C-alpha cells in the first residue's frame, strides 16, 4: 500500500514537471524570421535609400505583425508592410561614412533574431555638373484599393521622359533630379497588380534619385532643394505634381471648392496648396516653375476658374516673383489622365516643349491660348508659358480632346517680376 502511494506521487511530480498536463506534447512559439534584401552588405548609398526585406513566421497559428528598423542603434521605427517590407531612409543630413542597418520582426509573442548589414553613405558635395538646377517629379497614382480609381504607371512614364529631356536638353545634373512615385515600388499590370520591386533597384537610363511619394519624403526633398537652391543666385527649380485632387466630382458647378483649398493626394496623406506654399516660403530662386496636375487644382495657382483669383483668405502663398505656377484644371473642374501616357494636360504641355510646336503661343482671348500670328512671336525655343497656352489651346480646339475641354487649366505668371513688368518672353528652362 505504501509502495503504491509512492508510485502515484512520483507520476504526478514527473507529469507536472514535464508538461503541466498529462498526455500533452510540449509546444512553444517559433520566432519569426526577417531578412534585409537591400541595401546589401558593403553597398554605397546616397539620397533616398529604400531599405527592403522580407519576413515570415513558421507557426501555423500566427503571423508577422510588424517589422521594425533602426540605424546605428537609434530607436526602432516601424517599417511599411510585413512579409514584404520597406523603410525610406533619407541620408542628406547624415555625415558620409559607415552605418549599420538592423531589422527585426514581431509575431505577437517573440521578436526575430536581428538581421543587419553595414553600408556606406556617400552624398557628393558637388554634383557632376556646375549647373544649379533641380527638378522634382511627385506622382501618387495607385494607392486606392479600388482599382477603378487607380491612375496606373502613366504618370511615372511621363516623369521619366521629362526627366531624361531635362538632363539631355537643359543640362540638369542627374544628382539634382528626383522622382517620388507611389510608395517607391513598381507594380504588376501597369500599377494595378502586386508590388514587384522598388524603383531604385530597377535599371534606369540615368542615375537619378527615386523614392516614395509619402508626405515625409516630399517634405524632406523639397526642404533639401530649397536649402541647396538658395546657395546660388542663378538657381532654377522645377516641381511637378500628379495625382488625385481633393473635391466633389458630383458637384458639377464648383466641385465643392467655394470655401475649400485645393489639395492633392500623396501616397499616405494629403498636401494642401497652403502646405506647399509654406514649404516653398523660403525659396529664393527667381527661376521657378511649379505644375500641379490634379482635379480641382486651380487653388495652387491662386485661381478659381476663367482666370479669376481665389478669395484672399484662401491664397496658397505659392505664386511669387520669379515663379510660374500652373494648375492643370480650375479649382472647380476635374482633370483627366491616361493610365499609360500620364495626365492629359502635362502630356500636352511637355509635347509643346519637346517638339517645339508651342513656340510663339500667346494667351489670346480669356487666356485660352492662340498660335503665333504670321510667326511674329516665334524665336526658336519654347517657354513654360508658351507650352501652357499651347496645351490649353489644344484642349479647346482639338476634336480628339473634346471630352477634356472643360478642364480650364490656370496659370499665375510672375516671372521674373509681378505685374505688367514681367518678361513678355517668359521663363525658358535650362538657360
Structure description:
- Helix 5 (344-355) packs across helix 6 (384-397).
- The protein has helices spanning 2-18, 154-170, 215-229, 273-279, 344-355, 384-397; strands spanning 33-38, 44-45, 48-56, 66-71, 77-78, 84-90, 97-106, 115-121, 133-140, 177-181, 185-187, 195-198, 209-211, 236-243, 263-265, 270-272, 288-293, 323-327, 337-338, 342-343, 410-414.
- Strand 15 (263-265) and strand 16 (270-272) form a beta hairpin.
- It has 2 domains: 33-121, Immunoglobulins (Immunoglobulin-like), CATH 2.60.40.10; 133-347 and 410-421, Rossmann fold, CATH 3.40.50.
- The radius of gyration is 28 Å and the shape is globular.
- It starts with a helix and ends in a 17-residue tail after the last strand.
- It has 431 residues and is of the alpha/beta class.
- The strands form 6 sheets. It has a 7-stranded mixed beta sheet, sandwiched between helices. The chain has a 5-stranded mixed beta sheet with strand order 2-8-7-4-5, with no helix packed on it. Strands 1-3-6 form a 3-stranded antiparallel beta sheet, with no helix packed on it.
- It contains 6 helices and 21 strands.
The count of DSSP E runs of length 2 or more, i.e. the number of strands, is: 21
Estimate what percentage of residues fall within beta strands. 15-25%
What is the CATH architecture assignment of the largest domain? 3-Layer(aba) Sandwich
Whole-number mean pLDDT: 90
What integer value in Å does the Rg equal? 28 Å
Kindly name the structural category. Answer: alpha/beta
- Major sheet characteristics: 7 strands, mixed
Number of domains: 2
Per CATH, the class of the largest domain reads Alpha Beta
Low-confidence stretches: 1-26
Q: Going across the biggest sheet, name each strand in turn.
A: 13-10-9-14-17-18-21
CATH-defined topology of the largest domain: Rossmann fold
Residues in helices, as a percent range: 10-25%
Order of helices and strands: HEEEEEEEEEHEEEEHEEEHEEEEHHE
Molecular shape = globular
What's the helix count? 6
Distance between the termini: 107 Å
Amino acid at each position: 500500500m505504501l509502495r503504491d502511494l509512492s508510485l502515484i506521487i512520483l507520476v504526478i511530480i514527473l507529469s507536472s514537471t514535464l508538461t503541466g498536463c498529462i498526455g500533452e506534447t510540449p509546444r512553444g512559439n517559433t520566432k519569426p524570421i526577417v531578412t534585409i534584401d537591400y541595401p546589401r552588405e558593403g553597398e554605397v548609398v546616397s539620397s533616398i535609400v529604400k531599405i527592403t526585406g522580407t519576413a515570415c513566421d513558421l507557426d501555423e497559428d500566427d503571423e508577422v505583425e510588424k517589422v521594425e528598423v533602426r540605424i546605428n542603434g537609434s530607436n526602432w521605427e516601424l517599417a511599411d508592410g510585413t512579409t514584404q517590407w520597406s523603410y525610406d531612409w533619407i541620408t542628406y543630413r547624415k555625415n558620409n561614412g559607415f552605418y549599420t542597418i538592423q531589422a527585426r520582426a514581431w509575431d505577437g509573442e517573440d521578436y526575430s533574431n536581428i538581421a543587419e548589414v553595414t553600408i556606406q553613405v556617400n552624398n557628393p558635395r558637388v554634383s557632376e555638373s556646375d549647373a544649379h538646377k533641380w527638378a522634382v517629379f511627385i506622382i501618387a497614382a495607385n494607392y486606392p484599393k479600388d482599382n477603378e480609381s487607380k491612375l496606373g504607371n502613366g504618370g511615372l512614364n511621363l516623369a521619366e521622359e521629362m526627366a531624361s529631356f531635362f538632363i539631355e536638353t537643359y543640362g540638369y545634373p542627374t544628382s539634382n533630379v528626383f522622382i517620388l512615385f507611389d510608395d517607391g515600388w513598381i507594380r504588376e499590370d501597369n500599377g494595378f497588380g502586386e508590388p514587384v520591386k522598388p524603383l531604385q533597384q530597377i535599371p534606369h537610363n540615368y542615375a537619378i534619385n527615386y523614392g516614395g511619394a509619402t508626405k515625409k519624403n516630399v517634405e524632406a526633398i523639397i526642404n533639401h532643394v530649397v536649402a541647396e537652391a538658395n546657395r546660388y543666385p542663378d538657381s532654377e527649380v522645377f516641381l511637378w505634381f500628379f495625382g488625385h485632387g481633393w473635391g466633389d466630382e458630383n458637384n458639377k458647378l464648383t466641385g465643392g471648392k467655394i470655401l475649400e483649398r485645393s489639395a492633392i493626394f500623396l501616397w499616405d496623406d494629403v498636401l494642401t496648396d497652403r502646405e506647399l506654399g509654406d514649404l516653398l516660403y523660403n525659396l529664393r530662386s527667381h527661376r521657378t516653375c511649379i505644375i500641379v496636375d490634379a482635379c480641382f487644382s486651380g487653388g495652387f495657382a491662386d485661381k478659381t476658374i476663367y482666370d479669376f483669383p481665389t478669395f484672399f483668405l484662401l491664397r496658397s502663398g505659392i505664386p511669387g516673383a520669379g515663379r510660374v505656377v500652373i494648375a492643370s484644371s480650375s479649382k472647380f473642374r476635374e482633370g483627366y489622365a491616361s493610365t499609360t501616357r500620364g495626365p492629359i494636360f502635362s502630356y500636352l504641355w511637355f509635347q509643346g516643349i519637346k517638339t517645339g510646336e508651342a513656340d510663339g503661343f500667346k494667351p489670346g482671348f480669356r487666356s485660352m491660348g492662340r498660335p503665333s500670328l504670321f510667326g511674329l512671336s516665334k524665336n526658336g525655343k519654347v517657354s513654360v508659358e508658351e507650352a501652357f497656352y499651347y496645351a490649353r489651346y489644344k484642349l479647346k480646339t482639338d476634336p480628339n480632346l473634346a471630352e477634356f475641354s472643360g478642364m480650364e487649366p490656370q496659370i499665375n505668371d510672375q516671372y521674373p517680376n509681378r505685374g505688367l513688368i514681367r518678361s513678355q518672353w517668359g521663363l525658358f528652362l535650362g538657360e
